[in-house]
Design a protein that fits this description.
Blueprint lengths: L3 E3 L6 H10 L5 E5 L10 E4 L12 E5 L4 E2 L2
Antiparallel strand pairs: 1-3, 2-3, 2-4, 4-5
């Protein structure tokens, strides 16, 4: 796949983080809350380790083995 991939539509940021930890090539993840329209509840992960978060309402991101940040 590419640098980012969708791991489904879990109902929480914690569930998105868990999906990332199950995927061996996942390095970071971002979960979109239920207010994000067509992106609602989508869990997107990256596999290249790139980490350049920017604060955006309704999004929660974290590193596979790091702290969760509202970014």
């Amino acid at each position: 796949g590419g640098l980012s991939q969708v791991l489904g539509k879990p109902d929480s940021a914690e569930a998105c983080e868990a999906l990332c930890k199950q995927a061996t090539d996942c390095t970071v993840w971002t979960w979109h809350d239920e207010h994000q329209g067509s992106y609602a509840n989508i869990c997107v992960t990256r596999t290249d380790g790139m980490w350049n978060p920017s604060a955006e309402a309704g999004h929660t991101s974290g590193r596979r083995n790091g702290p969760v940040e509202n970014a």
